[in-house]
Write a structure and sequence with these properties.
By secondary structure, the chain is an alpha+beta fold. The chain has 2 helices and 4 strands; from the N terminus they run αββββα. The protein has one domain: High-Potential Iron-Sulfur Protein, Chain A, CATH 4.10.490. Bound molecules: iron/sulfur cluster (SF4).
Length: about 80
């Protein structure tokens, strides 16, 4: 792991963010993925998990965004 990568991880932990490995960050499903999570910060960040976040991925801290849920409800 590079010094920069170590630095970014240490900084993220100071911000109170979790390591990806500790929250089972992995491929998401159509219904549950970062792009529809309330913690997602577009385009590629998360307020809870460190590092580059891919919108189609997921972790066990997932909470569906109420805004997104409302938008989906209105489309039906
Ligand atoms: S699913 Fe996890 S990694 Fe993705 S935005 Fe939500 S809290 Fe962050």
């Amino acid at each position: 792991m590079s010094e920069r990568s170590e630095y970014l991880k240490a900084r993220a932990r100071q911000d109170g963010k979790r390591a990806k490995e500790s929250v089972n960050y992995s491929k998401g499903s159509p219904a549950a993925h970062c792009g529809v999570c309330k913690h997602f910060t577009p385009p590629n960040a998360c307020e809870k998990v460190e590092g580059h976040i891919v919108p189609s991925y997921w972790c066990r801290l997932f909470e569906k965004s109420r805004l997104i849920s409302g938008a989906l409800t209105r489309r039906r």
